Amino acid sequence: MSTDIFLHQLFAGLTAGAIYASLAVALVMVWRSTHHLNFAQGEMAMFSTYVALALIEAGLGYWSAFAATLGLSFLASVAIERLIVAPVARSQPLATVIVFVALLAIFHSLASWLFTPVLREFPSPFPAGTLPGFPYLSGHAAGVVALTLLELAAVWLFFRFTRLGLAMRAVAQNPVSSRLVGIPAARMLALGWGLAGALGACAGMMIAPIIYLDPNMMAGVLLYGFAATLLGGIANPWGAAAGGLIVGLLDSLVGAWLIGPELKLSFALTLIVAVLLVRPAGLFARAQRSRV
Amino acid sequence: MTPLLEIERLCAGYGAITVLRDVSLSVAAGQVAALLGANGAGKTTLLRAVSGMIPSTGAIRMEQHLLSGLPTEAIAQRGVAHVPEGRGTFAHLSVDENLQLGAWLRRDRAGIARDRERMFQHFPRLKERLRQQAGTLSGGEQQMLAIARALMSRPRLLLLDEPSFGLAPILVDELFVALARIRSEEQVAMLLVEQNAHAALEFSDHAYLLEAGELATHGSAQALRGDARVQRAYLGK
Lengths: 292, 237
What we know:
The structure holds two protein chains of two kinds.
Chain A: H1 2-34, H2 41-57, H3 62-91, H4 95-114, E1 130-131, E2 134-138, H5 139-161, H6 163-173, H7 175-180, H8 185-211, H9 218-232, H10 237-259, H11 264-278
Antiparallel strand pairs in A: 1-2
Chain B: E1 5-14, E2 17-27, E3 32-37, H1 43-50, E4 56-62, E5 65-66, H2 72-77, E6 80-83, H3 95-102, H4 109-122, H5 124-128, H6 139-151, E7 157-161, H7 169-186, E8 189-193, H8 197-203, E9 206-211, E10 214-220, H9 221-225, H10 228-235
Parallel strand pairs in B: 3-8, 3-9, 6-7, 7-8
Antiparallel strand pairs in B: 1-2, 1-4, 4-5, 9-10
């Protein structure tokens, strides 16, 4: 029986971890431009998921709705950065935090108002039931993990091999030097917001079939996303992604075996605080080496 | 002949503090002008104003186009490359990526590849360190990288802010040899801020002396070598 439970919890943890990883990478993208954690990232993702549901109910096929939602979330996030966050940050950097809290409240009430605040079922694009040969792995779980890996690989390839990706990395490190070589730094930061919006939307659409869609859907998920980001290292998207998987697995396995479901959230967070006491910059922080 | 860079009655500073008052100067195409002065005279501030990193009044023109008021990235596009104080390399990116970023405004792949090879001729050390993170280079190597990165944009004007700062004397000599070679091969004009007045005057055609934010004197580098005010600014006499 213990092997069964272990496999079940392992796959559940992987699935949740993949979703936290998406969200954690989104948080890193926003951190790079604002140097604050975006409290509204979860609510933005939840809102995107409602948009996806509306598109599906309007008759769009799942994948068309999925793609359209990613595009719309990207554009909306770019607009939010350009029109609200950047102007506020220019006049008063600390006010960014207030803007994030305001965005959280706005998206939350907007969702409750536009879409009735009851639990809604959200479709999964992946086969129902378990995978042949893997009785503890549902089609949806396998799909979520595969899609997330694909998405993270795409983001990695973008940053590693494209001109735009290189410029975005440069701006994250040194905005002044970036502008001196001709990179429009402000536009790159907005692009980072767009990517974060799309990654968040993806996380929302992947988790909704598991926990149902409602305006509070992302509250707990965002907390795990924060934990993942801090655990992996806020400056490093791949560390944050790994942090997501670790948090998901820990939460699931420890919750099942050691302490039961009531305490698992506190356990995971306590463990993360403990790690941060030893490695304040996160597990996978780049060693800051520099010579003068 | 109209100058490449022309600055008229420039005033600039930080917030309420005015550092530069009514400074006018010009740099001719392909020539090197040195900007001399004691610490705090406003040399770095002037370079920052040219690059649009701080607001200024007066007029700054590059090839007769007004630069004043343009954002930094648009000024880079007009052919101005700035090697800032402290070098400003991307410490976590590789030497190669730093060079690629230098050419960010360009689309001619073949030309970029050729220029990259030429940078290795100017600074062979960079070729050996191509995959290394820029932050792990020595001070001298980082300065070479900063200059090479600036040249990758094929600028018509190079702003150099204390390139010899913090370098051992032997490296300073090496650096100026490289700069002399760049100057003759790259057809790039330079506005050079230097604490090492001797090296700067040796290397320049023309020199400007700033005293407390105002232009004290200017003239050919040769003439300024004997100027008492230059000696005073650097030797504190």
